[in-house]
Hints:
- Helix 3 packs antiparallel against helix 4 (84-98).
- This protein has helices spanning 17-41, 46-57, 59-81, 84-98, 104-125.
- Helix content is 74%, strand content 0%.
- The chain is mostly helical.
Amino acid sequence: MDLPGVKRVGWFIAPGVFPFILSTGIVIMALSLMVTTLRESGGLDRTYLDKLRNVLASNAFWILLAEVGLLLLYIFVLLGRLHFAVATVIYLFSAMFVVRAAAWYTMAVISVAVSVGVTYLFGNLFRIPLP
Length: 131
């Protein structure tokens, strides 16, 4: 097999194999737990669907969707195009803005301080390359 960084030894020592095995096991266990729970509870009934409809219409659910969307935007768009510190400031400020964490100037100060602190700590002191 011709994988980058794993020429003569084998695919099974690639760095992503162990996390893949762990995540596959977690997904299998989660599905098993979900099926068991649905069987023991008697399946889906009308009250469950009404509760689900209420959850989907709630403000907390839309905040959750916005936060997930911001995280995906940060990972797949911002980190590839902007410097790590700038992308992190934008993400942190936006995430705090969605939940109305504080006044805008407080959120701006926190975002900049955390971003610069993490960038300095990992980039300069620990010598860990950041994206």
